[in-house]
């Protein structure tokens, strides 16, 4: 008998039906099905068909038992039994909250007496009854069917080895010190022009900054970073970690302009700046690769960054990046 419990399947119920027809005892049925006899007793009690008008038709039938079980499980779903909670989850999904953010914030705020997990929300989104609502369109990947995520293809570039990430201090790697950022470039379809977006994320608070660029030339990109970060105190802009793309080759300008040190990932290792990679996926929900940036103003990027910074994050105890970032500014100021 398996130590891991699983629901009876239709083939199990067909075998149970035939064994019952042969007048096999419950203990022997349980042994043959590899189940505890309590499971068999419970199955027979719950899913035996009762016809009060024609008692002779009453009995255990595998197909009917399977349908009765499915209907009972459908009725017992939390988001079906609690309409107010269901409406709250739908509203949060339409506001582009992830299932993990919704479940975490509900628990942190104590808004609902019913506790749900992200998997409950995912099953609600993709179940047959509620799939027509199209809630999957509000998820980060907008997938019509659930599937495993594939691996990303790495990129490479040329940067002096003196600035490799292996030389970066441990207090940056473990996020124990505030003011260390990761940066990347969001590229869009070539036929729409060379305009791109620099995305920058503070490692400890996950606070996001987005800057529009006219080209991939490195010095103008660095100048815009300097302009955006100059108003911040020096402890809030200590260093930046980039990949090895040529668009970051003018990194020394950051040290001259705002006193910020630069670090660079190893070749083919974008995961070493995972905070900004994760943020880029969030940004792509609103700005896919076919976005025409000529119609997007810097203010719209600021508004999008504000939206991302106002979403609760599991890694922050379901606080928002803006809340954590401002708390560090006040604490260190």
From TrEMBL:
InterPro entries linked: Homeodomain-like_sf (IPR009057), Integrase_cat-core (IPR001584), IS30-like_HTH (IPR025246), RNaseH-like_sf (IPR012337), RNaseH_sf (IPR036397), Transposase-Integrase (IPR051917), Transposase_IS30-like (IPR053392)
BP GO annotations: DNA integration; DNA recombination; transposition
Entry's Gene Ontology cellular component terms: cytosol
Domain Integrase catalytic as annotated: residue spans: 165-329
Molecular functions per Gene Ontology: nucleic acid binding; transposase activity
Keywords assigned by UniProt, alphabetized: DNA recombination
Pfam annotation, one family: HTH_38
SUPFAM superfamilies (alphabetical): Homeodomain-like (SSF46689), Ribonuclease H-like (SSF53098)
Keyword Methyltransferase: no
NCBIfam families: transpos_IS30
Protein name as catalogued: IS30 family transposase
Provenance organism: Rhizobium chutanense
Upper lineage: Bacteria, Pseudomonadati, Pseudomonadota, Alphaproteobacteria, Hyphomicrobiales
């Amino acid at each position: 008998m398996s130590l891991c419990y699983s629901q009876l399947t239709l083939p199990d119920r067909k075998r149970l039906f035939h064994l019952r027809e042969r007048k096999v005892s419950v203990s022997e049925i349980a042994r043959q099905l590899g189940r505890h006899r309590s499971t068999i007793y419970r199955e027979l009690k719950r899913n035996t068909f009762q016809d009060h008008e024609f008692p002779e038709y009453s009995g255990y039938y595998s197909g009917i038992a399977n349908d009765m079980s499915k209907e009972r499980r459908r009725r017992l779903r939390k988001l079906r039994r609690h309409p107010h909670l269901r409406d709250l989850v739908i509203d949060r999904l339409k506001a582009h909250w992830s299932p993990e953010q919704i479940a975490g914030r509900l628990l942190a705020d104590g808004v609902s007496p019913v506790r749900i997990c992200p998997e409950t929300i995912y099953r609600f989104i993709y179940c047959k009854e509620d799939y027509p609502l199209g809630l999957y369109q509000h998820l980060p990947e907008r997938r019509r069917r659930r599937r495993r995520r594939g691996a990303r293809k790495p990129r490479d570039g040329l940067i002096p080895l003196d600035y490799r990430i292996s030389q970066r201090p441990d207090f940056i790697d473990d996020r124990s010190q505030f003011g260390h950022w990761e940066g990347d470039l969001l590229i869009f379809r070539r036929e729409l022009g060379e305009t791109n977006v620099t995305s920058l994320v503070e490692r400890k608070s996950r606070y996001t900054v987005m800057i529009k660029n006219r080209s991939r030339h490195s010095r103008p990109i660095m100048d815009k970073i300097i302009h955006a970060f100059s108003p911040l105190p020096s402890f809030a802009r200590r260093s930046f970690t980039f990949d090895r793309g040529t668009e970051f080759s003018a990194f020394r300008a950051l040290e001259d302009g705002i006193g910020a040190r630069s670090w660079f990932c190893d070749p083919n290792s974008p995961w070493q700046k995972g905070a900004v990679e994760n943020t880029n996926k969030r940004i792509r929900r609103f700005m896919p690769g076919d976005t025409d940036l000529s119609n997007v103003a810097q203010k719209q990027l600021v508004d999008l960054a504000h939206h991302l910074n106002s979403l609760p994050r599991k890694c922050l105890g379901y606080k928002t990046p803006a809340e954590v970032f401002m708390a560090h500014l006040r604490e260190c100021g």
